[in-house]
Amino acid sequence: MSAFWSYTVIGIVFGSVYAITATGLVVTYTTTGVFNFAQGAVGMFAAFSYWQLTVAWHWPPLVALALLLLVGAPLLGAAVEVVLMRRLYGATADRMLMVTLGLLLILVGVAVAIWGNPANPQIVPPFFAGHSVTIAGVVVTWQQLLVVLAAAAIALTLRVFFKRFRAGIAMRAVVDDPELLALAGASPHRIARHGWMLGISLAALAGILLAPAVGSTGLNVDTLTLLVINGYAAAVVGRLRNLPLTFAGGLALGLADAYAIGYLPGRLPDSIVSQIPSVMPIVFLFIALLLIPAARLVAAGRLPVHMPARVAGGRESVAGAILLVAAVAVVSPLLNGLALSSVSQGFALGIVALSLVLLTGYAGQVSLCQLTFLGVGAYTMAKVGGGGSWWGLLAAVGVSAAVGVLVALPAIRLRGLYLALATLAFGEAAYYAFFENSSIFGTGGSLPVGRLPLPGVPSGSVSDRTELMMIAVTFALCAVGVLWLRRGAFGRRLVALNDSPAAFATLGMSPAWTKVAVFALSAGMAGLGGVLYAGQQGGIGGSDVLLFSSLTLLLLVSIWGIRTASGALAGGLSLSVLPVAQAHLPHALADLTGLAAGVGIILLARSPEGIFGSGWFPTRLRLPFTTEPAPACPAEEIAEERVGAVG
Amino acid sequence: MSILTGPVEGLFAGAPIGVAAYFDYLNSKGGVNGRKLRLDGYDDAFSGQANASETATAIAKDFALVGSFSLFDNYGCKALAANGAVPDVSVTLDPGTNSLPNDFSADPLAQGAATGPLQYLRTTYPKVVKVGSLVSNVSTATAQWQGEQAALQKVGYKIAYYRPISPIETDFTTDIINMRNDGVQMVYMTGLDWQIAAAMVQAMTQQNWHPLLFSGGPVYADQFISTAGGPSAVNGLWLGQTQALYLGQDAKTVPAVKTFLSWVQKAHPGFTPDLYTLFGWSSAQLFAQALQAAGKNPTRGAVLSQLKKIQAFNSSGLLAPANPAKKLPPSCYVLAKIVNGTYQRVADPPNGGFRCDGVYWSVKGPLPSVTSAG
Lengths: 647, 374
Hints:
The structure holds 2 protein chains of 2 kinds.
Chain A: H1 2-32, H2 39-56, H3 61-85, H4 93-115, E1 132-135, E2 138-141, H5 142-164, H6 166-176, H7 178-183, H8 188-214, H9 221-237, H10 243-263, H11 270-273, H12 276-291, H13 314-331, H14 337-362, H15 370-383, H16 390-411, H17 416-435, H18 438-441, E3 446-448, H19 464-487, H20 489-499, H21 501-506, H22 511-537, E4 539-541, H23 547-560, H24 565-582, H25 592-603
Antiparallel strand pairs in A: 1-2, 3-4
Helix pairs in contact in A: 1-5, 1-8, 1-9, 1-10, 2-3, 2-4, 2-8, 2-9, 3-8, 4-23, 4-25, 5-6, 5-8, 5-10, 6-8, 9-10, 9-12, 10-12, 12-17, 13-19, 14-19, 14-22, 14-23, 14-24, 15-16, 15-17, 15-22, 16-22, 19-20, 20-22, 23-24, 23-25
Chain B: H1 14-28, H2 48-61, E1 65-66, H3 73-82, E2 88-89, H4 95-98, E3 103-104, E4 112-114, H5 115-124, E5 130-136, H6 139-154, E6 158-165, H7 173-181, E7 186-188, H8 194-206, E8 212-215, H9 224-228, H10 231-234, E9 238-241, H11 255-267, H12 275-293, H13 300-307, E10 334-339, E11 342-345, E12 360-362, E13 365-367
Parallel strand pairs in B: 1-2, 2-3, 5-6, 5-7, 7-8, 8-9
Antiparallel strand pairs in B: 4-12, 9-10, 10-11, 12-13
Helix pairs in contact in B: 1-11, 1-12, 2-3, 12-13
């Protein structure tokens, strides 16, 4: 029994870490209507800045805290509102989501450039070092108590502020109906700016408070940035609005974590036990999304009012495909070594990007786990028919499609932000429980995958150049197929589903069936891309399906044009070629791919069609501080779309 | 070939620095048979694809691969297997690469542990029987743990607590409480990097729990002691490792340590050497030894033939003797302890060097011993 109380104390300490990160998310969402995926990156940046000031430059902690929390973070919040978010007024929820993902990648890229690869660990000393109390046999430091108390105090204080104070109520109102708020004499922009300043300051506070514990052996950009993902589950438990419930969700997650680590070792296989801390928050998030009644999962956002990109006709798309293959045939003899393999990989990733065109571009279903399907396809290929056979290819497409259906079924009632969170949860759970599992991927951490045999050429004898041609032909066929689908009845259904799920359902069509079908198709195509990707490099492992890579692919395809086949190819090639270029650039561009994706998506935030989908693209490039033209169809805008109940 | 950029930037930057340092050192003495050695660096950027294609490029462009260290050797393995005439002199974590006939390692891969240091502790602390351990859930570490577990049990220890951990974990308080409740007397910290070992020690200190600590080598790092909480937190920690104290403590007794450190600083001023730097340096030395023996006009085949003859190699005392030709790991070791916040050798053999009083115990049982560098 004493062990139980010890685990309980540890769980509350763990849980407060989750709670404090989730609270910042909820506050930002409550006051801005935006789920800030960059919340963790802001905390990470604040933690490194605090280290720079207090440890590297020996500033007094209180001065550093005051500078960062009262000046730096509010200024950053104001800048985010003025430079990024104000331009997005009227944009769809998925555009806002992508802009925050872009901000995340920029902050990570800048942090890597400034603080990456240190000679010595960057350690933030704990607050009140040397002081502790013993509770239920567990020594708890004052630093840990500070986090517990801060998490509780922030949740309760802000709850009162948003419910009882005029300024807090105005912050919620600016999300619900800014026009109505303006009629009442308030400035929606000013209030939204204050909301961002508060949200970013809370993210910075969380980062600084958690830095001594999370970075006790050295701050790490990725660990701090991704820490907030563990808070997503608690935030969803609080339905992104209820702070006390969010705090409770955080504690419940922490307790579940502590009890699992405390009681399960020796009772479950090692491969499961080792993944508990990584997978628990993700499973918690998935369950929360499934169990909370759909009507409560309400996301702010607007219906799309843009003109979709022109779809190429049948002859046009076939001619384009032939031209593309011919161009590859001409260029491929000029390529060697890494350049040759990078281009091949780019075409294979282009096939995965085409799956995003179907799923996100046409149907409006945001997926943050597309590389997971790539991995599933490649894994199946590795296991069927000796690792390089046409049977393996068929099985890979089939299994990937089946996994797509498995993801789609629980996600049928989700859309926009919540669907994105569900796919992120699935991708992360698959990464830790499956792709990083040595009992599945073996001692080397990866499985060998062969190339598809060709007539007269066995799997092991397909040359790099032949492989490039085959992948390019496959891409061209897939692109023609996707465009054919788009022109047909199914494609029109997808666009209708994207435009208005409510109208779609009203017309007697089934959003559920359509979502399942497009998920299956998309996942199957991503699996096909995975087979070719893995065959080209000779294997598949966890490093091929990283979350950041999935996010970056989505952003790159969005930048080039997520409703166009050319955008898919450019996105795939960018993801493959930029890292190669990065190796030859200065240290400041160590995260070139992330920086390019982040900056690009922000510049093109108002242009959902991307570069290739917008005609002469420079007319769609909007620099910060430029004035937006009035929406094309203002009368059609709907202030808030209650999408949770649909489907 | 190493991981220099990517998600974990500079992860194994030490490996090419070690190779470059040894080549610089050798070239300063006139090179090998009058020829100067030149290093072409390749970066797989944490990518299997890049590792495969860069390995193929290196095979086409360079005489041999030397001092590679990556987590993606299994991707480049295919190209190496298809080009069996190309020597690869590198320490690898990949069993497939390790088994190639053209792969030679200064510290061959084997899943297990030297029994010598464990037997010494068992004799010194006879009442300490229950062992607890956390092991990173990365495939190489868990495979290694199988052999280490067998070695621990062979000398009479009982595994009282064990948990495979995710590399992203930062708090081990629950494990410390569990180990304390399970009566663990010694914590075995080998399948971890030094940062996680430091976080474990921090948690032990916070909970006022001070068992016997043992590490097979990972905690031998410049920053470990200060990061783990300073001398008071780690004094008394035992090390049993197959490398000399190459960070400087052995500089007086092993001249190669001084040479290694000074040339690393010349190759990359300000760089703190690590185990990968040592592997790079030793691999370059093993390659140069074979190249020297291959004569004035060496071919790849001649170098491979010479590598197959090297049955004892100790990198001038930097490493315990191993058998690269037969891929046998070292069974000798250095016993050391943290005393007053510094790493110090303990119970050295009369003539210095390495203790050779045990065997290397692998998952398949004991391996033939390599006790001298000939």
